[in-house]
Amino acid sequence: MPSVFGDPGYAPLPDGRRLHYVSQGFSQGEGRPVVVLESGLGASRVEWGLVMPLVAERTRVVAYDRAGLGRSTPDRHRRDLERMVEDLGRLLDHLGEERYVLAGHSLGGPILRAYAAANPGRVAGLVLIDQAVEDLPFYYWRSVRALSLAVQTVTIGLAGLGVKIVPKEVRRILALFPKEMRREALAEMTRASELRATRAEYAALPEGFARLRASEITLPPVPVTVISGALAPSKLERRFRPELVAAHRRLAEAQPMGRHVLAERSGHMVPQDEPGLVAEEILRLLG
C-alpha cells in the first residue's frame, strides 16, 4: 500500500515479523551517509512527515514504524529498550549501508545512543532531539506510571469499541501536516493495535532506562548534536524542563564533537514545531 510519507519497504526479521519503513531522496554515488530517523514513544514514521522532504534534498532519508506501530508487525516479546535496539539493528542491516547518520526524538534518543555505543563503526553522526533522559526521576514515579497505564488501558478499550480519542496536543500537531498526511496518520494512530503497542513500550520503559543508566554507555567519537525544546506549556514540563535542558547540555559537552542547540519556538515536539531546524542540524552532519 502506498504511503504519502515516502516510498514504502519492509525489513524482514528472523522471527517472521516485518518492520515497515518509508524513504525519500537518493544518496547513491554521492558519498553521503543515509539518514535514519527514530521516533518517540508510541510514534511511527508519521512523526517525521515535515522533516523528511527537507533532508531528502541532500541525501536518502528513512523513517520506520517500530513493532506494532504504523504498518509494522506486532511483537509478542516484551518491548524493552534492548528489543527496540535489536530491531533497529536489523533494519539497518536490511538497508545495507556501511554507516548512517541517526536522528531520534524523545525515546528515540536513548535507542540511538544504546545502538551507537554497541555499534560505533556504523554511526557517522547522531542528532538527539529533545531526547528522554534516563536520569530524570519522572520516568520512575510509580503513581504517575500507574495512572498513565490505566488511562492507556481505557483508551485501548474505547478504540476497540470504535471510539476514537485524539488528545488536544496530537490534534495541534496534526494540524501542521498537509491534509493527506493527516488522514493517513489519524487512520493509524487511533487503532486499538497502535495504542496497545504504545502501552507496551511505556510499560517496559523504567527497567530499560534503569539498565541504560547503570551501563554508563560511551558514544563513538562522531559529531553529536543535542536539540532541546525551550518552551514548557504544561505545569509538569515547567517543573522538569530546566533539568532536562541541563542534562542535554551536559551530554553535548561531554562529546568531543558535541553541539547543543536550543529550539526557541518548541516544547517537546520539535520535529513538528521546527522541522527546518531539525533538518538543518541533520544536514550539518552530512558535511
Automatic annotation (TrEMBL):
Which residue range or ranges hold the AB hydrolase-1 domain? 33-180
What is the protein's name according to its record? Pimeloyl-ACP methyl ester carboxylesterase
An example Gene Ontology molecular-function term: catalytic activity
Quote the Gene3D superfamilies the UniProt record gives: alpha/beta hydrolase
Output the Gene Ontology cellular-component terms: membrane
Known InterPro entries for this protein? AB_hydrolase_1, AB_hydrolase_fold, AB_hydrolase_sf
User: Record's Pfam families?
Assistant: Abhydrolase_1
